[in-house]
Amino acid sequence: MAEDVDVVVIGLGPGGEDAAGRLAEAGLSVAAVESRLVGGECPYYACVPTKMMVRAAGLLAEGGRVPGMAGSATVGPDWAPVAKRIRVEATDDWDDTAAADRLTAKGVTLVRGRGRITAPREVTVDGRVLRARRGVLLNTGTSPAAPPIDGLDGLPYWTNREAVEATEAPGSLLVLGGGVVGVEMAQVFSRFGTRVTVVEAGDRLLANEEPESGDLLRRVFEREGIGVRTGVKVTGTSQEGGELALHLGDERLTADRLLVATGRRPNLKGLGLDVVGLDEGARQIPVDGGMRAADGVWAIGDITGKGAFTHVSMYQASVAVRDILGEEGPPASYRAVPRVTFTDPEIGSVGLTEAQARDQNLPVRTGTAQIPESARGWIHKVGNDGFIKLVANPEWGTLVGATAAGPSGGEVLGALAVAVHTEATTAALREMIYAYPTFHRAIEAALADLDA
Ligand SMILES: Cc1cc2nc3c(=O)[nH]c(=O)nc-3n(C[C@H](O)[C@H](O)[C@H](O)COP(=O)(O)OP(=O)(O)OC[C@H]3O[C@@H](n4cnc5c(N)ncnc54)[C@H](O)[C@@H]3O)c2cc1C
Ligand SMILES: NC(=O)c1ccc[n+]([C@@H]2O[C@H](COP(=O)([O-])OP(=O)(O)OC[C@H]3O[C@@H](n4cnc5c(N)ncnc54)[C@H](O)[C@@H]3O)[C@@H](O)[C@H]2O)c1
């Protein structure tokens, strides 16, 4: 017999988990369906454990910067405490009991298994039928995607999941894909003594960011001994003995491990989307400003294609909850989506890149300041690589995008995210007093360059 509830949430990524809890706390009856781990990719295989890896790698790098600046230091990498911290503190050995208990304590009915829409406002999980009076909220996220390269399917390659579960740093690592996952992982493992080469098909690292960001990262990587191969085509793969190989025509790159970080595919197959007029083969589910995808269907998170970040998933959750509860509020806006690549230097950015602004036919003016030339950057000295780049629309007199690359670039970004979000005028930003000597004071120099 079917069970009647108000809302069924399929997939409990960060947004789905949050929305299910909030809807239950608002008094609705909520069934939440999860096939793997409550909380999704972020706490178990993505943001949280990888940032623990980044933190540990950063400590090693800072220790290595002591000579010539503050005396002597000997640092030796050991992956064991990183692996232990991920297993014990971050993921509870990839056990979601605590998260599941938190959710059910809010009044949510947790249903373990794979959910499928079987009729409008109806979801079936292993034969259990759930009817949703108000509707269904989709938050099924993404899975790692591998390109169709000869032989790759048969190789024991890592994705982000195996990399996070690693109990030791490999001797050598090939990273296929120089996007966010690839560059974060490459630098982490390199700092733990792994010989790393990044292999990227596009002509630069971090293709979605300003070209200056990819160029900066390449310079830093090469200085740190990380191999960077861009604009290359992998024609095949092979395994000989313990070694994995990528073929670039006649050339062979070999390593103990291969990390495939070539992007993600949305978890839409088998969801029964055709029942509600949506396309399971699509790259994303189109949503309106209230996160509505179809009658009685809301979608949030990576599957909406509005930015594959935990903060976007959480933001959309709050918009969807409001819409489901029939509360007033502004439609979702993506003008000022912030993003941070947690390399050293950190690459923080918000809004449009220069190229994206030009593609939208906006009038564009840019201003740049180099961190090493700022007072704080000069004082900081070793490890001071970075820049601020502003993308302004001179007609509106506002910033439409910005990048803060450098030490704590993701934190400096906060000021720029406020500026883009609130549409602060560049005139007002110029009148601001910027504390001396901070990294964010370089924003003032970039504003001056905007005028030049
Ligand atoms: C290595 C890595 C590092 C990252 N670091 C960051 C970072 O630092 N900051 C940041 O903001 N973002 C980061 N991200 C992105 C971030 O992980 C995602 O944007 C975030 O998890 C939000 O995803 P989501 O809400 O769409 O759902 P997901 O987290 O993908 O979760 C979806 C859930 O739905 C479940 N599911 C799927 N289909 C079904 C079904 N039919 N029935 C039941 N359950 C189903 C899945 O099992 C999963 O638990 C990182 C990603 C990766 C890969
Ligand atoms: N710090 C963060 O917030 C953070 C960290 C990691 C991931 N994420 C999210 O996860 C998403 C996925 O990250 P990702 O790095 O897997 O994907 P991505 O799309 O950012 O990068 C994938 C890269 O792989 C390259 N590639 C694709 N096919 C290739 C091939 N055959 N050979 C060589 N290179 C190839 C692409 O050109 C691209 O540069 C990101 O877009 C981001 O939204 C966020």
From TrEMBL:
Obligatory cofactor(s): FAD
SUPFAM superfamilies per the UniProt record, alphabetical: FAD/NAD(P)-binding domain (SSF51905), FAD/NAD-linked reductases, dimerisation (C-terminal) domain (SSF55424)
Matches recorded under InterPro entries: FAD/NAD-bd_sf, FAD/NAD-binding_dom, FAD/NAD-linked_Rdtase_dimer_sf, Pyr_nuc-diS_OxRdtase, Pyr_nucl-diS_OxRdtase_dimer
Ranges where the FAD/NAD(P)-binding domain occurs: 6-317
Keyword Flavoprotein on entry: yes
Cytoplasm found in the keyword field: no
Record keywords: FAD, Flavoprotein
Domain of life: Bacteria
Domain Pyridine nucleotide-disulphide oxidoreductase dimerisation: 337-445
Family statement drawn from the similarity comment of this UniProt entry: Belongs to the class-I pyridine nucleotide-disulfide oxidoreductase family.
Record protein name field: NAD(P)/FAD-dependent oxidoreductase
